[in-house]
Amino acid sequence: MFSRCPGAANLRTPTLTIKTCPQCGAEVEIFSNDIAVTCGTCGFVIYNDVNSCIKWCRYAEQCVGPELYTKLKRD
């Protein structure tokens, strides 16, 4: 893995964000390396809107590792 890529820092060391479920208003925790989470109250799927370099950087797989790369590359 590369150690100096600023674009992947929040993927290698995930950060937590609290979002409000648009369906029921409950607070939902989503990490920066999650693609989507399900609201524990109503079951609504909330997608992570963090844009990452995974989609366009040619070094992405080497940078974050094959397991995380594969997980995040799925749409």
Overview of the molecule:
- This protein is α+β, with helices and mostly antiparallel strands and 75 residues long.
- The chain has one domain (6-73).
- The protein has three helices and four strands, in the order αββββαα.
- It has a two-stranded antiparallel sheet with strand order 1-2.
- Strand 3 (36-38) and strand 4 (45-47) form a beta hairpin.
- The model has no long low-confidence stretch (mean pLDDT 81).
Keywords:
two-stranded antiparallel sheet; alpha+beta; elongated; 75 residues
Q: List SSEs in N-to-C order.
A: HEEEEHH
Residue fraction in strands: 15-25%
End-to-end distance, in Å? 23 Å
How many DSSP E strands? 4
Total number of helices: 3
Shape: elongated
Helix content: 10-25%
Overall number of domains: 1
Quaternary state, please?
Answer: single chain
Mean pLDDT: 81
Which structural class best describes the helix and strand composition?
Answer: alpha+beta
Radius of gyration: 14 Å
Spatial sequence of strands, sheet with the most strands: 1-2
Let me know the largest β-sheet. 2 strands, antiparallel
Unreliably modeled segments: none
